[in-house]
Amino acid sequence: YQNGAGLRMWAEYFPEAEIYGLDIREDALVNEGRIHSYQCDQGNIKSLLAARDLIEAQLSCTSIGTGFDLIVDDGSHIPEHQVLSAYALWPSIAPGGRYVIEDVWDAALVAPFLPFPHDVIELKTHRVKDDRLIVSKLG
Fold first, then answer.
1. Distance separating alpha carbons of residues 18 and 125, to the nearest angstrom
2. What SS3 state is found at 35?
3. Active site residues
4. How is the chain split among helix, strand and coil, in percent rounded to 5?
5. What is the pLDDT of residues 6-60, one digit of tens each?
6. Whole-angstrom Cα distance, residue 104 to residue 73?
């Protein structure tokens, strides 16, 4: 594990994008170039909504636009947190955007409770037990 490795990967993959990250650990926050990180507890709805509102307020002061084209939940991997995050963050998806949940242990504990149409993708790598994704169909 290296702090910010995932955020840096996304910044490299999307060279024109502003990358926003949330992490519960303050020492894991990365703020460099196009990467902006904020402290947030994924298991706390008030923390999620406060982080969402802070980022949206900052976006409205820029020419970036409204809403996110892509949100990737690669957080705690706890099913309840994944559902809570979806409810808090889904409204911030831009038209045509996507919401992806990585590292889903048991889709039956997450998928039926999501606020958006989705597909469950089984990766079947057999390396890890949480080798499935949930991807929004609409956005």
1. 31
2. strand
3. 77
4. 35, 25, 40
5. 999 999 999 999 999 999 999 999 999 999 999 999 999 999 999 999 998 887 7
6. 10
